[in-house]
Amino acid sequence: MAVSSTVPLLLTLTVLCCLLPTPLFLSAAAEKTQLAIEVCKNTTDFNFCRQSIYSDPRAPTADRVVLASITFTNAYFNATDTRDYIASQIKLIGGGGNPDIIKGLKSCLGNYNEAVRAINEVLGDLNDESYYDFDKLSLDAEKNLRACENGFHGRSPITQRNVVAIKLANICYVVSKLFQYND
């Protein structure tokens, strides 16, 4: 008897929940989700940006600081992984490979070291809540990544890695524009 009297009550509560306005926390989450989408709309590859940002579970509710943490961390891990890959390829090829490729890889190693340094500086500033020069550091990272690819005067042996790294740096630059210098 008690079960049959709770069914109408549950049904009424369910209907009321569906008809009531969206709670403020849900609209705030939607607004923050929109921030990531707006960022991605301003990058060179919307789909890549969206996949990169939303690979992190914090993305749906990310404000600009969390979004910067996500994007710069993704770029940092990618750049350090590629830097390590380049170093391993230089060792693997040694002196027995094409001298132009070895020279290009050594140049790329320096470019990636600079890109990692710039991205790491932004991550340090994020931890210190100092948001100055994110745009310049992002552009510096992207410039070095492009220099690696362009140093081969054609298709490099790491073109795919460079393309991904350049796209990540582009996302970082767009996110950096969310910060004013007076923050």
UniProtKB/TrEMBL annotation:
By its UniProt entry, which Gene3D superfamilies does this protein fall under? Invertase/pectin methylesterase inhibitor family protein (1.20.140.40)
Tell me yes or no: is Mitochondrion among this UniProt entry's keywords. no
Record Pfam families: PMEI
Naturally occurring in which organism (per UniProt): Rehmannia glutinosa (Chinese foxglove)
The alphabetical list of record keywords is: Disulfide bond, Signal
Q: Where is the Pectinesterase inhibitor domain?
A: 32-175
Q: Any idea what this protein is called?
A: Pectinesterase inhibitor domain-containing protein
The residue range of the signal peptide is 1-30
> Family assignment?
Belongs to the PMEI family.
What domain of life does the UniProt record list for this protein's source? Answer: Eukaryota
